[in-house]
# Entry
Amino acid sequence: MADSLAGKVVLVTGGGRGMGRGIAEAFSQRGAKVIIAARTARHGEEAVAAIRERGGEALLVQADNTDRHAMKQMVEQGAAHFGGLDVVVHCAAHWVQGEVVDMDEADFDDLVQSNIHSLFWLAKDAAPWLAKARDKGRLIFISSGSAGRQYLPGNICYSSTKAFMNEFSRGLAMELGKRNILVNTVEPGLVASDRVLGNIGMDIAEALTTGYPIPRPGTPQDVARAVLFFASGEADYITGASLLVDGGSSMSPMPDLDKILAQTNSGQG
# Structure
């Protein structure tokens, strides 16, 4: 796998922190040249600095995936800097929690702009570059294990945008196959990234996953390994596929969140 990724040019959206940063660092460790697209400059600068400190090649492109012009500029700037694109990983996403009847329409619009419109923009802008990749171009979407597989309270709108991503990816695999581009999706479960832990903390993350067949939260590295596989020569005959990386959570009963919160707040969990 390492040999097939060395020297490749990889664009990772949302690469400044969380899963995106983990994915970017994993590619760099295997010799790829990494373009980190981040909305917050500070996060992107920290991710790029970490890669360069280890001797890797990385470029920061500041981009907001709700901005059409910024998305196009992100692709063009990154490809121009390294002379092309071999792999694009779309990890950037927006998350809004709440029941439909209570959700602000502006929040829903932001969710759709970030999680749906960006797919179209990225595919449209990156495909001409990926079609010129040295072997096969790779477009990899980071979806969610909740996309049509498991109901999560307050996540209907978010999960629906990820279900759209899954179907978009499958259809796009048909369209882009003739251009020598493979399109696949990774569906993570609960991942203990810095962003997730900042919202719920490790105690709650661990409590939520005790009933999983693999009873722990996932890590950014768990997700990165799946992405690396899709990007590698070992996946040359795979397109239109979706890989669950969720510890079996989609097969597990829904945990009682209220009970877990009560236990952790009282110091019993």
